[in-house]
Amino acid sequence: MEWVCCGTTELLIELLAGRTTTKIPLPDQWRYYPRNPYYDYNVVVRSASDSYFESKPKIVTTPAPQHPPIIHQKPRMNKLLPSVAVLQLLSGGFIQHGNFSESLRLSSNVVLVKDGPCYLVVNTGLPYQKNDIIKNLASAGATSTDVQFLIITSALPQFLGSLNLFQSAQLITEKHFVYRDHVLQGIIQEDVQIETCSRNTYLFATPGPTANSVTLIAKNVPSMGRVAIAGALFLHDDSITRIDDSFTWNAAKMIESRRKIICQVDWIVPAHSPPFPVSTALRHMAECHLLKYSQS
User: What 8-state DSSP symbol labels residue 133?
Assistant: First the structure.
């Protein structure tokens, strides 16, 4: 009789049964579904070919009805209402001549947009507007960490003063998309709509103030309809042709972009004055009938 001494249980089983119990490590290229989170078509095919019954199960059938069944369907009375975007001014804008030649005194409109559960802020004003932004954000029942998108319409100083308030937001400024320490370069092409929170809020390229300026358009705003938050595209009035050299990169592009916005929206929020409605006369001046843009 042979004795086995001083070994483990696994070694005893190997000697008596003639097989190993050592676990074989899975190779790196192992592709079985539970191992890696993707679907392996080969595994599905092999599993489908396995037989789980020695004989085919019986299928019980019922005779077909002599007459087709009659299905009564009640008409749906309730229609889904379109979601809305709600706007709130976090800090108001103004513009006037300063105490020195070639100087201005101003503040910028900072706008909070609530699109369903998603919050956006458009422009951040000058640094001294910070307290207004914090106070009015709180009155809206939100904090800076609730803001998911921060839109800067043009890289001009009056829009950049409080960027650091919104460190958790995705920052979109001209040709850069920023999230925390990630910076992606990409230009928003003209005549292309880039959705943000939903189809209710989208970005539209409006070069003129700078080469890559953008406008945020919000649809289904209560009592206003479609609203453009245009920044420096409209400084303080509804003039199509007024040009301020201090905030203009290309005058021809500025006028073209203004026409495109006027023909798409019902209201415009300029950079430094209260919102104004788009009148029929303004649409006529913009020659909207010659453009392809509409409010569809």
Answer: H
CA 137 to chain centre: 20
Give the range of the structural domain holding residue 111, as residue numbers without chain letter. 85-290
CA atoms of 180 and 170, how far apart (whole Å): 8
Q: Give residue-wise pLDDT tens across range 17-70.
A: 555 555 444 444 433 333 333 333 333 333 334 433 344 444 444 455 555 555
The domain spanning residue 261 has which CATH number? 3.60.15.10
Give the number of domains in the chain.
1
- Contact (Cβ atoms closer than 8 angstroms) between residue 214 and residue 151: yes
Structure confidence by residue, pLDDT tens digits, 245-280: 999 999 999 999 999 999 999 999 999 999 999 999
- Does any domain span residue 58? no
Strand pairing of 94-97 and 85-91? unpaired
* Residue 13 falls inside a structural domain: no
